[in-house]
């Protein structure tokens, strides 16, 4: 078991939050493929079946649609199911139950039944895995009314946001950026303190430019901000964390200072979350904007096999290019 | 040609059950629960279901309801299934279930509200744990497996009696992965869930024979390692026995079962359908001969349990029940427009305040869309 | 059969295009639920099984995932499958095969195999149907690289674009706005002439304001434009028709004249296509814009049952309000 | 308690086939096709598959390949299946299929390219109509049904001989709706498709018994109304007979079949897995006793068809084959970055020109992501 206050990784923080929830809420049950004896293919559920027993931590047969669907039935009777999809690339068969049922049950029954489900999935690319193991399709789910989409970008946020998601009375898709599962360690007290959902986190303050990123891309975005800083440009870095509903106000607040903005995401550009953020920024802060919101994203191609993965992913250099385009535009001023 | 020697590895049988034949004659002694009172109750509920369906179809024809799926000719299945559940069991229905809804205490005005485009119809006042009507085919089978898991979990954690989930679908639904995934999970986790298939021979215009190559629908349970039975679905006693037996075993911790109830859809698929495009009047006429109400009527009369006078009383009573329900339905105030936000989440997220306000302001200003 | 040059409805135009394709390309096969003897629940395939036989026009068992998946196998061997989903609300189980296979097969095999599939579905609301029968989730599919998304808004465009979709060597999701299936008639010669994919249509010229809409919303958008015209405001109305890839250049051309823009769609706002269009407009035409791109859309709620449907749908009055907001902003000028 | 009289409605049997027992002794006369040459060929291909898997795992360990799924201990299934297809048949594989790939003419360098993160590995030069390796579990079963439809369609329209689609999966895949939907469609449309399940007892860490409550995997075919057979999957002759028999029937227009080939995964699930976390060394050791190569070796030697000398020659030959393939793989020039656009559509849509140019310019400028 993870020791209190020792520095832990993001995936260990996930494990710690799951353990906390299991220990403190008897209605919590965990299920998915290989989450029991194996502890999950990324070890996110390591030790949990041993500790809480096979009645609360269960390996399912191999069917994602089934995993999503039974969660709906369980939740309707008062359980707090936490369902794992082994990789986001295998979540698509589950869309129907997530969209048509989990996200609608409360509305459909006018509040009689509800679906306090957490659907978890490791997400994003960068681990040299085979095809379908590097998906970032959060935008598909963020379009679904009634569903929250949450992505942590540090061990502490993974712990606090996952606890919040588990306690939320409605369904949450919790996407875990696997590229940074073990990228950094941080002390995360196992105090059961949740972090707020629906609130963006300002990860770095700055006055010249707003950079928006979530999940694993936060890493490259912060690195880009550091690089800019050496050039005398101070970028504010915002992690929305809850992608839907989006905390646009924190972003607008930042734009009051900076007047220009770059959104970074791994997902394909067309119809990605960057589009929604850009659209809202121009709606709410049209007069503040000195440059078009720049999107630094994956290309509108299929996520390539890993030989060409780095070509696809937005890295520090592309983020810097986006930042410079925004800043250059601002400097030239509106024509 | 070479023919190898094979060893027998496993064998499976599918059986068939009937108590009342097409003419309403008992083919074997009836089970204990089928008392005169019970039979009369079922008869009443089947008649009421038919009346509700009939009135709903007429309301649709005059534009006062949306698309409506009648259960004409399949009333025995709904009533027998709904009747077999105890209050604390959980029902996970599909849409063609008037008889079962009535047995579960769903109000007629709720049924009308639902098909009249009002979500409040799914807020079953008297069946608070039952799942709502499920439209996406076969998805309810997985919900039922999840419900059954919750019931089993509660039983194991709290030592309360094991309750049972029952789910229904049409035979068309058995082609969809959900149905199979649900049975498979229920089998391997020994979940207390009973799958009832209303095999009414048609999935809209697609006949049973174009749906699957199997001899029976019941045998699909073999793929999940769970027991199955085929019953005459127009024989309310046979359906009731099968469901009760399966539920008793489930309640006893013996796991799931599948029941195929063979019936026939005597109506159009829904009010939006015109079945004459794809099936013959002859087939329909033949099916009418073995419909469940006529059959039970014949049995009850042959046993001296029914008469024209009783029927007249019943007709009068049911007409009153129906009128009262219509009144309740019609006198319900409409929902405010902002209701579309009220149950989206337990608490409206801040990110939606602006949209909510916009809608409210539009409504105040009388903007129509 | 439909007579050449007699005025036909949109759904009849779909039928005419399907018949043309069946008659002229022996590799075309049609399948779906109730499309045979019943002619489809909207009669889009009326008479086709009688005319082309049950080997080319087939009723399938009831499984949308299956419908999507077999199309991939068929197409990989040279057939031109046209698969119908009975309603868009039932397409979600099919997402996996559409996204993971149909849209990726060509790329995955480096061009060896391809998926010239047309997935058709009636889409949108407004016909007083039960739950799940009124979906507009085009944005989910428009985010999928490798997939085209096409929506016609008139009988002629239904005919021409469907033929183009069928002939396209890659997968197309063809969404048919069922609210206007029978709303208007138009002569559509059965000449086998396709209309271009990836090209927007300017449905009305105007200098003051650009209105963008597709599918059934084109009707209310044109009505709003007429209303504005009586007030001396000339709106240009653009129907992108192919939603992905998007013909942004036609939209930017229009903005060169109008400098302000309203996007209309039935779908929920958050992550809808309106976001992508707004994002691209501000990227490509930042200096042209005199007002934020307005989005007049469905709310971010579950599509309500039909009693409250009109509350949800963007109608003429909401489009006018959006137009006035854009124009008012423009008049006040940038601050 | 009341016990109703039931009628028998349908009965089903599942049979089991083996030619070579665990010690490699013939339990019955071998079929005609199992000539000494054929047996030697299978033996060679099984050895080659094992060598390829072994080298690939080592390449992964040294960081030169990504995650790799070995077929160690299951070579008989892949080789027997791949061998049963004629050139114009279509194979729709899952990922654990080294033996079958070799039989289909997929190049070793293509296999390495694929798992080395290079899409060109799926552009099978010598199996142009076969589907690529399929990762999303069970989806290939539906593709195979679609392929079979296309083959049937071509046969009916053009009068050419009926070809057959063959698809493979693990036993875990049989829990997923796709598998069942594909069998059901194949049954009702009588499609020329054979479903082969490699029942290697484990789906990563989930044992067969936690996957389904059925006695056999084969019986899942009963739910689709199609014939099924269970075979000893470590007996190359039994697998080959079953697949050939099923394919012959399919070719003859008699429709689909399911074959369950019982084997055991002697390796980790993939190089990313550590099977010692969830299964015992004893279980593994027992399974090694009946692995397919040792078994065939024993049979061939008992028949005087194999010797140490032959084995040495074979080892030498296969090592050369492997080295040549490694050379080819390593000498392949990398793909240009713009390849990610080149096969997205048949023609790059105009809307993507700008992104394409951006990428090309970044590459020219040496930008890394
Ligand atoms: C997933 C899904 N696909 C399609 C439909 C449209 N649809 C509604 S009912 C129906 C036929 C169902 O047939 P069956 O399961 O036999 O039930 P029955 O209506 O005959 O009682 C279809 C195709 C749907 N509701 N859900
Ligand atoms: C839809 C889907 N879910 C999950 C996975 C991850 N995964 C890869 S292999 C595997 C187990 C498959 O077991 P089985 O079908 O028995 O085949 P085996 O690997 O044993 O040959 C899982 C869960 C996947 N590839 N696809
Ligand atoms: Mg039916
Ligand atoms: Mg396996």
Automatic annotation (TrEMBL), chains A, C:
The keyword RNA-binding does not apply. It comes from the Bacteria. Gene3D superfamilies: 3.40.50.920, 3.40.50.970. InterPro entries: THDP-binding, Transketo_C/PFOR_II, Transketolase-like_Pyr-bd, Transketolase_C. SUPFAM superfamilies: Thiamin diphosphate-binding fold (THDP-binding), TK C-terminal domain-like. Keywords: Oxidoreductase, Thiamine pyrophosphate. Residues 8-183 form the Transketolase-like pyrimidine-binding domain. It holds the Pfam family Transketolase_C. Its cofactor is thiamine diphosphate. This is Alpha-ketoacid dehydrogenase subunit beta. It comes from Microbulbifer harenosus. The lineage of its organism: Bacteria, Pseudomonadati, Pseudomonadota, Gammaproteobacteria, Cellvibrionales.
From TrEMBL, chains B, D:
Its EC number is 1.2.4.1. Its cofactor is thiamine diphosphate. Residues 43-334 form the Dehydrogenase E1 component domain. Heterodimer of an alpha and a beta chain. Transmembrane segments: none annotated. It is an enzyme of class 1 (oxidoreductase). It comes from Microbulbifer harenosus. InterPro entries: Alpha-ketoacid_DH_E1_comp (IPR050771), DH_E1 (IPR001017), PdhA/BkdA (IPR017596), THDP-binding (IPR029061). The lineage of its organism: Bacteria, Pseudomonadati, Pseudomonadota, Gammaproteobacteria, Cellvibrionales. Pfam families: E1_dh (PF00676). This is Pyruvate dehydrogenase E1 component subunit alpha.
């Amino acid at each position: 078991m993870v020791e209190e206050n020792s520095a832990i990784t993001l995936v260990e923080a996930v494990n710690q939050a799951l353990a906390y929830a299991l220990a403190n809420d008897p209605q919590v049950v965990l299920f998915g493929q290989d989450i029991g004896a194996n502890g999950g293919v990324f070890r996110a559920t390591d030790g949990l079946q041993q500790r809480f027993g096979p009645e609360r931590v269960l390996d399912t047969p191999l069917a994602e649609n089934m995993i999503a669907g039974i969660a709906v039935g369980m939740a309707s009777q008062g359980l707090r199911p936490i369902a794992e999809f082994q990789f986001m690339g295998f979540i698509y068969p589950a869309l129907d139950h997530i969209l048509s049922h989990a996200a609608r049950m409360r509305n459909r029954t006018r509040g009689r039944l509800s679906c306090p489900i957490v659907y978890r999935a490791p997400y994003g690319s960068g681990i040299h895995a085979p095809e379908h193991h590097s998906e970032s399709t959060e935008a598909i789910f963020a379009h679904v009314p009634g569903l929250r989409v949450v992505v942590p970008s540090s061990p502490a946020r993974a712990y606090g946001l996952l606890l919040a998601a588990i306690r939320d009375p409605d369904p949450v898709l919790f996407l875990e950026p696997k590229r940074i599962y073990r990228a950094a360690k941080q002390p995360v007290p196992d105090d059961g303190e949740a972090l707020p959902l629906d609130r963006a986190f300002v990860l770095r303050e700055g006055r010249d430019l707003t950079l928006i990123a979530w999940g694993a891309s936060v890493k490259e975005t912060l690195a880009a901000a550091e690089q800019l800083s050496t050039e005398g440009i101070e970028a504010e870095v915002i992690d929305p964390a809850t992608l839907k509903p989006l905390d646009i106000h924190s972003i607008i607040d930042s734009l009051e200072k900076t007047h220009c903005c770059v959104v970074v995401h791994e997902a394909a550009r067309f119809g990605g979350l960057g589009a929604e953020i850009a659209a809202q920024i121009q709606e709410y802060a049209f007069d503040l904007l000195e440059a078009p919101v720049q999107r630094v994203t994956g290309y509108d191609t299929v996520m390539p096999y890993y030989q060409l993965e780095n070509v696809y992913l937005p890295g520090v250099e592309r983020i810097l290019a986006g930042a410079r385009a925004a800043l250059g535009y601002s400097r030239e001023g509106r024509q | 040609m070479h023919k190898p020697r094979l060893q027998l590895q496993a064998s499976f049988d599918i059986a068939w059950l009937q108590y009342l034949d097409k003419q309403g004659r008992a083919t074997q002694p009836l089970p204990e629960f089928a008392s005169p009172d019970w039979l009369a109750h079922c008869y009443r509920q089947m008649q009421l279901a038919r009346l509700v369906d009939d009135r709903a179809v007429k309301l649709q024809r005059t534009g006062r309801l949306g698309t409506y799926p009648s259960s004409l000719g399949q009333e025995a299945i709904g009533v027998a299934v709904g009747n077999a559940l105890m209050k604390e069991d959980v029902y996970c229905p599909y849409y063609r279930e008037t008889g079962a809804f009535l047995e579960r205490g769903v109000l007629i005005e709720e049924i009308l509200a639902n098909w009249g485009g009002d979500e409040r119809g799914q807020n079953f006042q008297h069946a608070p744990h039952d799942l709502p009507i499920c439209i996406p085919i076969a998805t309810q089978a997985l919900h039922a497996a999840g419900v059954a898991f919750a019931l089993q979990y509660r039983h194991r954690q709290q030592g309360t009696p094991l309750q049972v989930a029952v789910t229904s679908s049409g035979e068309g639904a058995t082609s969809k992965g959900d149905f199979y995934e649900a049975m498979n999970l229920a089998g391997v986790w020994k979940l207390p869930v009973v799958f009832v298939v209303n095999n009414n021979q048609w999935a809209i215009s697609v006949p049973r024979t174009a749906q699957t190559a199997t001899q029976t629908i019941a045998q699909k349970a073999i793929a999940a390692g769970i027991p199955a039975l085929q019953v005459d679905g127009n024989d309310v006693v046979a359906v009731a026995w099968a469901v009760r037996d399966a539920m008793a075993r489930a309640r006893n911790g013996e796991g799931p079962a599948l029941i195929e109830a063979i019936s026939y859809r005597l109506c159009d698929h829904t009010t939006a359908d015109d079945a004459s495009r794809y099936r013959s009047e002859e087939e329909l006429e033949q099916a009418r001969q073995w419909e469940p109400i006529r059959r039970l009527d014949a049995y009850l009369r042959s046993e001296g349990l029914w008469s024209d006078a009783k029927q007249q009383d019943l007709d009068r009573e049911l007409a009153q029940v129906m009128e009262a329900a219509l009144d309740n339905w019609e006198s319900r105030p409409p929902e405010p427009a902002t209701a579309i936000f009220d149950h989206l989440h337990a608490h409206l997220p801040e990110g939606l305040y602006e949209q909510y306000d916009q809608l409210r302001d539009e409504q105040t200003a009388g903007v129509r869309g």
